[in-house]
From TrEMBL:
The chain crosses the membrane at residues 234-256, 293-318, 330-352, 364-389, 395-425, 446-468, 488-512, 524-543, 555-583. GO terms for molecular function: SNAP receptor activity. This is Transmembrane 9 superfamily member. GO terms for cellular component: endosome membrane; Golgi membrane. The keyword Kinase does not apply. It comes from Cajanus cajan (Pigeon pea). It is a multi-pass membrane protein. Belongs to the nonaspanin (TM9SF) (TC 9.A.2) family. GO terms for biological process: protein localization to membrane; response to nematode. Keywords: Endosome, Golgi apparatus, Membrane, Receptor, Signal, Transmembrane, Transmembrane helix. InterPro entries: EMP70.
């Protein structure tokens, strides 16, 4: 590999670019949210959608509500657009600490078609999302009541909420909390297929609270801090630690009783006995595998994604990323992926340069498209689906251009720069033993020693350590259980890496002990197979959920496939690196003996 000082240089370059991005995108301070009595508080309507389908969202004014003239859309960040946010102005008016009772928003004559649209939305539990002083809050547009009193049943009744009450809490001259409630006593029956005259009204109630402004986002964390949820979090962590201790014990037994004794026998044996078992592979075990350019591209991309994930977890730990930081996660995700491309190029080129003098450009190019390519194809397909449904999750043309420009003028140059640094300053790989000119043939292995079964074992053990935590993450992504414990998530991720490393060592030794020297690709597949179990669990999660419809199914499968593919590359890269170090270590010991 390349010399450590060059890796340190790239890391500090990455931190410098990250610091510049942080200063440019720093969130508003508390001084930006100070109001005097009577000051107008910024308010925006965002989107509506069915409660059970988080990816199926539409613009608020797609439903026949009171519209301002003209409708002015808020200028949004790239992350907000990618998240499906479409903020617009509204007729609602909020002045700091000025109450309003039964304020008329607008009278409206609903046509038969508009009534049908609202009826369908109510039947699917449509909710709305508003923002007041950058605080998100939600409410339902109506309610559905089953007619259980009439003999034989008369079908459901649909009621539209025409009055919304806003309860706002403040501390001094700052807003702390907002809630919205549809008044069921003023709901209008829209069950019949007739036009309806309605009058939309609202009330604004202000109340004081002692909650500090710095803690106003804590209310979104309460769902994750319930005792039952915390018990699940810590049980998952303890489960991971127990698996690690078990694996350490098994590997210690393996090393002392088998590997250690093998080394002693090797030092005291004659030449014939030395050519038995894993010791006989010293002339083939360091032979680069077929498609080595692709292999090192996998390692490079996996390293990039691992660094990206660690930085995101760090930002969550220090509070830069928090629940409902509008578009914040996607902003950082796109920016960090572009910046971390330098590590993909560096790692791929430095590994490839240890085994070949020419052709490093190919592996760097593969590292650039290995993850970006499939994600681009999946996003394009999902974008076509979203646009056909007129959903807000469809990307506007301007946002697509911004992403393409960012990757063309930032990610690709950094990828190439990392590749040049990694190749030019690579270190010479010192092979513990000479490589034979012709590769030896591998014998036919039993079914339980072949790649599919080893992948099953390599994926099942780490997956069993994260399955409880994985359920919480999926519930946060595709439901309304807000995940706000990055410390527990980070504390679980570290043991999973350790488990994958320990399992990788064990499986690599098992493979070498039966004189199978083709460990390179198998180490990647066995480590990455945990992501296959993750994807299988996401299918199980979808079946057990209340999500429905082709749009939601497409986004669920597409986004989870991209996520699990990323973890396949991350875990595969970790497994390969650990196996590589293990193989070098044991054959270095053989060389010393």
């Amino acid at each position: 590999m390349a010399k450590p000082r060059h890796l340190i240089f790239l890391f500090f370059l990455f931190l410098l670019l990250l610091l510049c991005a942080t200063l440019q995108s720093s969130s508003a301070s508390s001084s930006d949210h100070l109001y005097d009595v009577g000051d107008v508080v910024p308010f925006f309507v965002n989107k509506v959608g069915p409660f059970n389908n988080p990816s199926e969202t539409y613009e608020f004014y797609d439903l026949p509500f009171c519209t301002p003239d003209p409708i002015v859309r808020k200028k949004e960040s790239l992350g907000e657009v990618l998240n499906g946010d479409r903020l617009s102005n509204a007729k609602y008016e909020f002045k700091f600490r000025e109450e309003k009772i039964d304020e008329t928003l607008c009278p409206k004559k609903l046509t038969i078609d508009q009534v049908a649209i609202l009826r369908q939305a109510i039947s699917r539990d449509f909710y709305f999302q508003f923002y007041l002083d950058d605080l998100p809050f939600w409410g339902f547009i109506g309610k559905l009541e089953e007619d259980g009193w009439t003999p034989g049943g008369g079908g459901p009744n649909y009621y539209l909420f025409t009055h919304v009450q806003f309860d706002i809490l403040y501390n001094g001259n700052q807003i702390i909390q907002v809630n919205a409630f549809g008044d069921p006593n003023r709901a209008v029956d829209i069950t019949s297929d007739v036009g309806v005259d309605v009058k939309f009204t609202y009330s604004v109630i202000w109340n004081a609270t002692k909650v500090r402004f710095e803690n106003r986002m804590d209310r979104y964390s309460r769902a994750s801090l319930m005792p039952v949820h915390q018990q699940i979090h810590w049980f998952s962590f303890v489960n991971s630690i127990a698996i690690i201790l078990l694996l350490i014990g098994l590997l210690a037994l393996l090393y002392m009783r088998h590997l250690g004794s093998d080394l002693k026998k090797y030092s005291n044996a004659n030449e014939e006995d030395k050519e038995v078992g894993w010791k006989s592979l010293h002339g083939d075990v360091f032979r680069p595998p077929s498609n080595s350019a692709l292999l090192f591209a996998v390692v490079g991309t996996g390293t990039q994604l691992l660094i990206l994930l660690c930085v995101l977890l760090f930002l969550a730990l220090i509070g830069t990323l928090y629940p409902y930081n509008r578009g914040g996660l996607l902003n950082w995700l796109v920016l960090l992926y572009a910046l971390s491309s330098v590590f993909a190029g560096y790692t791929a080129a430095s590994f490839y340069g240890q085994f070949a003098e020419n052709g490093w450009e190919k592996t760097v190019s593969l590292a650039g498209i290995l993850y970006t390519g499939p994600v681009f194809v999946a996003a394009s397909i999902l974008n076509i689906v979203a646009i056909s449904y007129r959903a807000t999750t469809g990307f506007p043309f301007g946002s697509i251009v911004v992403v393409l420009v960012l990757f063309t003028f930032l990610a690709i140059p950094l990828l190439a720069f990392g590749g040049v640094i990694g190749y030019r300053f690579r270190s010479k790989f010192q092979i513990p033993s000479g490589t034979k000119r012709h590769s030896r043939d591998t014998q036919l292995l039993a079914w339980y020693r072949r790649t599919p079964f080893l992948m099953f074992l390599g994926g099942l053990v780490p997956f069993s350590a994260i399955v409880l935590q994985l359920h919480q993450v999926y519930a946060s992504m595709w439901g309304y259980k807000i995940y706000t414990l990055p410390s527990i998530l980070f504390a679980t991720f570290i043991p999973v890496i350790v488990i994958i490393a320990l399992v990788s060592i064990g499986l690599t030794y098992i493979q070498l002990s039966v004189e199978d020297h083709e460990w390179w690709w198998r180490s990647v597949l066995c480590g990455g197979s945990t992501a296959i179990f993750m994807f299988g669990y996401c299918i199980y999660f979808y079946v057990r959920s209340n999500m429905s419809g082709f749009l939601q199914l497409s986004f669920f499968i597409g986004y989870n496939a991209c996520l699990c593919y990323a973890f396949f590359l991350i875990f595969g890269a970790i497994s390969f690196r650990v196996s590589f170090l293990f193989v070098r270590h044991i054959y270095d010991d053989v060389k010393r003996e």
